Protein: E3 UFM1-protein ligase 1 homolog
Organism: Brassica campestris
Amino acid sequence: MDEELLELQRQFEFAQQVKSSVRLSDRNVVELVQKLQELRVIDFDLLHTVTGKEYITQEQLKNEIATEISKLGRVSVIDLADTIGVDLYHVEKQAQDVVLSDPGLMLVQGEIISQSYWDSIAEEINERLQECSQISVAELAGQLQVGSELVQSVLEPRLGTLVKARLEGGQLYTPAYVARVTAMVRGASRGIFVPSNLSALWAPLQQLVQQMNGSSGVAVENAFFQSIFNRLLKEEEMLGSLRAGTHWTPSVFAVAQKECVDSFFSQNSYIPYETMQKLGISQAVQFLQSRYPDGKPLSAVFIHSSMIEMLDSTTEDAIEQNSWIDSLSVLPASFTSQDANKILLLCPSVQSALKAEKALILAESFVISSGFIKGIYDQIEKEAEAFSIQASTASLIDHPSKSSESQESIPANTDKGSKKKKGKSASMKTATVETVPDDEEEARPKSKRNQKKGRDSSSSQKLDAKAGGKKESVKAQEGNNFIPPDGWVMKKIVDSVPEFEDEGMDNPDSILKHLADLMRPMLINSLKERRKKIFTENADRMKRLKDDLQKKLDESFLNMQLYEKALELFEDDQSTSAVLHRHLLRTTAATIADTLLHDLDILNKLKNGIEVGDSKAQDSVLLESSERMDLAKNLNGSLSRKALALVEALEGKRVDAFMTTFRDLAEESGLALKKLDKKLERTLLHAYRKDLISQVSTESDPVALLAKVVSLLYIKAHNKALQAPGRAIAAAISHLKDKLDESAYKTLTDCQKATVTLLALMSASTGEEHDCSADRILSKRELLESQMPVLRSLVLGDSQPQQS
């Protein structure tokens, strides 16, 4: 057998040495191979080498790749392509097949690495660990030029076998190093007696380990300490509780906590959450509810049910006695108003009282019985009615007076003690001619005249415009004038319950504010109902009053127009005309003006819902100048301005100015004034003459008789109704000189002189016993009385006075 092999070798060597007689070129060889492939003689794929002079099969390529890997353990695909001399594409493709077919190989970032390579690396790492105790995975990855994750995944299955170490937080530690650090963590943790954050504990341990390892040591991560701590806690080498992974509470502290909580709660039947926080218990409500299931959590404290029972008995007594109680006064200082409100709602007596509407909870902590509130409300309601009347009256005074003061500057006497005076009727049936001498007429109260009557109309119009701009705002406020404000209500509550004064009226959370907010709407509704009732009653009364006023003015104003016509007879006598104008303004004009102002004031009050007492019917009202001014200012808007103009005209010297202002005011008030026509004038003159004749027939006073006779003579002579004062009688008689015979004229002049003498003596008389003027007065009176039949005969006799 051996000899045969040797022979074959010799023949093969000879064949190789013998030179071929026919040589093939590279092209011929390529064509020959292609022909063999076409003929399916070569039925497998051939690969060219990078030189193009050699063919290699895919199987051979795989074998060469496997050989290189087994020889080196870690080889780059690029290096394989250079070594084998085949294109990189084919090498990568076959390398992937090789890796897939062998589980012990891995292709990582263009490199094929075998498990034997990693085993050798693991042995090297283990040797290095024995020298330095710890190695960073990142450092190993940098040295091996691979990723840290790959190194970690390769080392994990080899830990405890090829690598005697512990992998934690990207670090490899030897067992001795881990034991040393475990002892440090155990000692530091057992030295903690209060709740602590473990992160703060690891910082000094890191410094200690760094000093132990020296400058070459790698910093230890907190996760390494935390994992050791968790293992020790699991093995019960340390007692306590760990919350959120880092908050450590030693068992000794938890025991002390529970003892403190139990002691405080058992002694006081409550415990504030603030105390729990000081003890280090953050979730106080959950802790207390789990420990005391019968307790009740409030806003700031946790209470025992005995606290509810104690407060329940106290509030029950207050409700039964129709009183009130501030629960904060019987609860500890740690309770807030919210706590008081919650515990009150837990009291059975309060629950039943609230359901039966026997009590209310106000300001969160006050329990007030409904009977107590009703007692205060009834008292305040009476005072609120008086306040409403006073406020409504004041608004009538303030608002119009402000507007009128900006437009008029009429001085007025504002004495509140002045009273209305009653005068005689201004009707035609009782009209008389005043025969008072000059001194008596001037003694009558006079008002100050307007000091700024001459103000030009342009400034007056400007002031009217300003007043008109404020009209709407004044009307908007009138509706709320009668409602008492919060401050007034709170003051009345303090007057009823002085104990509430300490709460303070400016504190928005005080019991005063809450009571005022409760009672004020009730007061508003009550006052509105009352005003509604008053308005309903006042509407009918206003209608009756306005109808009565219209009737009064119809007769009085016609008489005034009748008397005004008589003044035309004295236009050529300025002095007498002024006296007659002044007299008519002070008598008849004043009477109808006072009637109008008085009734307009009552209508204004009724319109604004103010109660006005039912005054007895009276023929006329006589006012002083200051009273007229006050009534005019009390009216609203343009009505007030025209009333002030009427008062100003009444204090003037011309009747025609008065008549104009009177018509304006009556028209503004909605009253219709009749105009004196010829027919009405004849009717009034006839009635006036008839009434005067009746008075002359029955008159017993010679002084009064003279004036009435003169008035009758003017009706007969001029068809005019003359109203003349005593000092104008002489001038009136002189104007009749052309209308009477000499005897009648002489009788009138003699009686007039005797009357003036008599009145002068009576004025100068002192009334004493030794006064000698009494005889002269008596004689003069007897003289006048003797002339009374003669005077009557001038107007009542059969013969009429002769006219010239």
